[in-house]
Amino acid sequence: MRENQLATDAAITDVVIDIVALGKIVPSGDDTLTILHEISFAVTSGEAVAIVGASGSGKSTLLGLMAGLDLPTAGRVILGGQDMSELDEDARAALRGRLLGFVFQSFQLLPALTALENTMLPLELAGWADARATAEAMLGRVGLGARLAHYPKHLSGGEQQRVALARAFAMRPQLLLADEPTGNLDAATGAQIIELMFAMNAEAGTTLILVTHDEALAHRCGRTLRLDAGRIVG
């Protein structure tokens, strides 16, 4: 009995993010629109989980709630043991900075900063003393050691996503949220980025939640959650 309890406690503490009966309702004219209906799932340390669904199924809304960028109408997002709904905006931002890495479809690089500066920025904001050395090492890891001083406009789409990967992994996040990371790339470049992302994820032992409409990409993950009209259907 004692051993079973210890196993249960270990499983609970191994949960990186816990989504509990999550709901999101937004105004729509004179009425309301329910985007998410009582979504519940947990992701444990080291898992790779794909969230798939058609456009409008609620994937982006769910991702924003998981990141604490928005608050749910109902339910809870518990990240690293913290209920996001109980935190103010500054505390949620601090938690994001400490635990999360992001890779977006649109890269989200700052155009006025070089590849090195884009990668260094979150490290500097977090007060890392070795921000420059860490950023340089990560850019070298993604094959951009010779492109440190280049601005995003002088980089290809694949190179920009490599910078985004370097920036995300530089912070050594517990959880990486990837939102359609190959959506703006051609098939060959996208395949290279995915190979790099999964390799870096394995090296770092990071937990991965991947939002995608690509079934082949979803199959690279250990588990797939399927969203349909704001509900998990499989």
Write the layout of secondary structure elements.
Layout: H1 2-13, E1 15-28, E2 31-44, E3 48-52, H2 59-66, E4 74-79, E5 82-83, H3 89-99, E6 100-104, H4 115-125, H5 131-141, H6 157-170, E7 175-179, H7 187-204, E8 207-212, H8 215-218, E9 223-228, E10 231-232
Parallel strand pairs: 3-8, 3-9, 6-7, 7-8
Antiparallel strand pairs: 1-2, 1-4, 4-5, 9-10
Helix pairs in contact: 4-5, 4-6, 5-6, 6-7
Number of strands: 10
Task: Give the helix proportion (percent range).
Answer: 25-40%
- Tell me about the biggest sheet? 6 strands, mixed
Biggest sheet strand order reads 6-7-8-3-9-10
Please give the count of helices.
8
Shape: globular
- How would you spell out the order of helices and strands? HEEEHEEHEHHHEHEHEE
Mean pLDDT: 90
| Proportion of residues in extended strands | 25-35%
What structural class should be given to the helix and strand makeup? alpha/beta
- Contiguous runs where pLDDT drops below 50 for at least 5 residues: 1-12
Distance between the termini: 33 Å
Radius of gyration: 18 Å
